[in-house]
Design goal:
5-stranded mixed beta sheet, 15 helices
Length: 465
């Protein structure tokens, strides 16, 4: 092992040589996990009576291969030792219990990456889990990741944007559940017997976010003829710079969910609401990051202007045309930003070419943030259904609702004797359809967006692969 991978310090686990994924035991672990995954059901269990199912002994042999490889690799990552011991025990218990619905709560609680956010620190992670925007089933997944935590970011988190649970991470390697559009590692996706009282970390893969941003925005600029400022052009050309931009953006975005005037559960995970409420919440957090980008730029942080460019270009180009149209709340937020800029003359589409007045766009984007913040401040004094209607009014001021919408007809068209959660059933799957501009753009970018599935980082200054 030490001939293949050496470390500066057994305490930190930061590699001075080649990465963990180059150790032969990683390949063995990954192969064993990939042998188990096809046999699993949606809930992670294995039905041995199904046609073509492997035998219990065959699956147990693969699990033992995972545990043996873990024994080889764990000494290389001493900061994960407690987690790896709990993981090995959870794997063994799953096998001893006959491969029913997996329960990896003990190892999930033992995995605490936010306690040691050290730039370059590696982690080896194995969980039965679904991957957001990826595989919806709780299959066994394995991945090696690396922490992104440069000194300037650590300073900002400590002094201005306290977010002790946030982890910026990049991929080293992964099993098929991450060969998808998924760019997050969240503890709530793991199969457990009961949810912990609170989660203690959350990871965002900034390399995937940066790589797909670069590819899609470059294509969108070419399709629309948009000229971007030199600073934005330099950002698009630099993968490393983009990664650090997204880590900063995500860190501010994430903490904003629990800061400010919040008339409802900030993450809205315990409530059933119309999807435009989720869209406004995600947009509010992004526009807060945009606002903080201006403050950081004024204080001499070049990353601040990068965040502003990234928020505008990502929201305007990738969000509205990515994913299915069914309750696509991120897409809604991007559509709203575009329409707001257009209707306030910061953005124009003339002669088949898109142009943006970048100074005015910054000013107008700030106004949209103020409108959403005003909605939130007033929301605490309103009943829930009134708040939802006011939010609908804000969105529909700038976006045309579907002509068949019941909500668009106003409160008289809704059965207000029903509890609010039942009124969500009256929301159309695509309550705010794409504009003609975005319908055309979606067709032109469809192949490019599909090509970003499973994308990871490319060397700085090169196109993402």
């Amino acid at each position: 092992m030490t001939e293949i991978l050496s470390y500066d310090s057994a305490e930190s686990g930061v590699p001075s040589g080649r990465p963990v994924v180059e150790h032969p035991s990683w390949a063995a672990l990954k192969q064993a996990v990939e042998a188990v995954r096809p046999a699993q059901s949606a809930d992670g269990s294995i039905d041995f009576t199904a046609e073509g199912a492997p035998t219990p002994d065959a699956v147990r042999a693969e699990i033992e291969r995972v545990r043996a490889a873990l024994d080889d690799l764990s000494p290389l990552l001493p900061h994960d030792a407690e987690y790896h011991r709990a993981l090995s025990a959870d794997l063994l218990r799953w096998a001893d219990d006959g491969f029913g619905v997996p329960d990896f709560l003990d190892s999930l609680l033992a995995f605490q990456p936010a306690r040691a956010r050290e730039d370059g620190l590696q982690h080896l992670v194995v969980f039965p889990m679904y991957t957001q925007n990826g595989n919806p089933d709780r299959n066994l997944e394995a991945l090696v990741l690396r922490m992104v935590w440069p000194d300037w970011l650590a300073e900002l988190e400590r002094d201005r944007y306290d977010n002790p649970l946030f982890c910026g991470i990049t991929f080293e390697d992964f099993t098929p559940g991450y060969d998808t559009h998924s760019a997050v590692l969240f503890p709530e996706t793991v199969a457990v017997r009961e949810a912990p009282e609170r989660f203690s970390w959350g990871g965002i893969f900034c390399d995937r976010e940066a790589a797909r941003f670069r590819r899609v925005v470059e294509a969108a600029c070419e399709v629309t003829g948009l000229e971007v400022p030199p600073e934005a052009r330099e950002l698009l050309a630099d993968q490393q710079r983009c990664q650090e931009t997204f880590v900063l953006w995500d860190m501010v975005h994430d903490r904003t969910h629990s800061h400010g005037d919040l008339p409802f559960d900030p993450f809205m995970i315990k409530q059933r609401q119309p999807f435009w409420m989720y869209g406004l919440e995600e947009l509010r957090c992004d526009l807060t990051a945009f606002h903080e980008g201006a403050r950081l730029a004024a204080d001499g942080y070049p990353q601040g202007l990068d965040v502003q460019h990234a928020v505008l270009l990502e929201r305007l180009f990738r969000f509205p045309v990515t994913g299915e149209r069914r309750r696509n709340y991120d897409g809604l937020g991007g559509q709203l930003l575009f329409a707001y800029l257009h209707q306030h003359e910061a953005l124009r589409w003339r002669d088949n070419q898109l142009s943006i007045d970048w100074d005015r766009a910054r000013e107008v984007t700030g106004r949209l943030r103020e409108e959403i913040e005003g909605l939130y401040r007033a929301g605490i004094d309103r009943p829930k259904i009134v708040h939802w209607l006011k939010a609908y009014e804000l969105v529909s001021t700038y976006l045309a609702p579907h002509p068949g919408s019941t909500w668009a007809k106003g409160p008289d068209a809704l059965d207000l004797s029903l509890p609010p959660r039942k009124l969500v059933d009256e929301v159309l799957p695509d309550e705010f359809p794409l504009s003609m501009f975005y319908e055309a753009l979606a067709k032109k970018l469809r192949t490019v967006i599909a090509s970003t599935e499973g994308i990871t980082a490319a060397p700085a200054g090169q196109a993402a692969a």
